[in-house]
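can u do me a favor
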């Protein structure tokens, strides 16, 4: 089983704690990068910590929970090597792993409850990346990332 890095902002803290219990009960090795309370924090800090861990080791996966899941996904995808997907339903969770080889999952605490969150995470973790045409497309995606880095492509901020 892969090691899983988890993180959340203050809005996702309670669900992160529930998720941690669930993952540990399934036998996963879990590293919690915070936050460790409901005190107000900035989601980009925790999304970046999880994304950095995922980028540094292709054998690990990451999960981040914020209010909607969108902001953390955007932050995580700024880190080269990360393929983050915001999945607040079962279909996108499975599709992001199978078709896009997602290595980081984000979810919104204001969108999913505890029970559905666990179903989404289980579906995501139990779906293998598909070979063939999907792997070819993921390789192309990573080539574009590499080209942008090499060419110094910068967005408008």
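np, heres the sequence
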């Amino acid at each position: 089983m892969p090691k899983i890095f988890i993180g959340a902002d203050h809005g996702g803290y309670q669900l992160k704690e529930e998720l941690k219990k669930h993952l540990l009960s399934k036998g996963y090795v879990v590293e919690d990068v915070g936050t460790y309370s409901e005190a107000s924090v900035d989601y980009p800090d925790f999304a970046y910590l999880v994304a950095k861990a995922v980028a540094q080791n292709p054998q690990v996966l990451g999960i981040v929970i914020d209010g909607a899941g969108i902001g953390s996904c955007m932050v995580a995808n700024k880190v080269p090597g990360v393929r983050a997907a915001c999945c607040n339903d079962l279909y996108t969770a499975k599709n992001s792993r199978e078709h896009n080889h997602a290595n980081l999952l984000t979810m919104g605490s204001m969108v999913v409850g505890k029970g559905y969150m666990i179903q989404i995470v289980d579906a995501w973790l139990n779906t293998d990346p598909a070979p063939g045409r999907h792997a070819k497309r993921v390789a192309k995606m990573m080539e574009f990332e590499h080209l942008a880095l090499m060419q110094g492509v910068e967005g408008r901020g």
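The chain has one domain: 4-130. hope that helps!!
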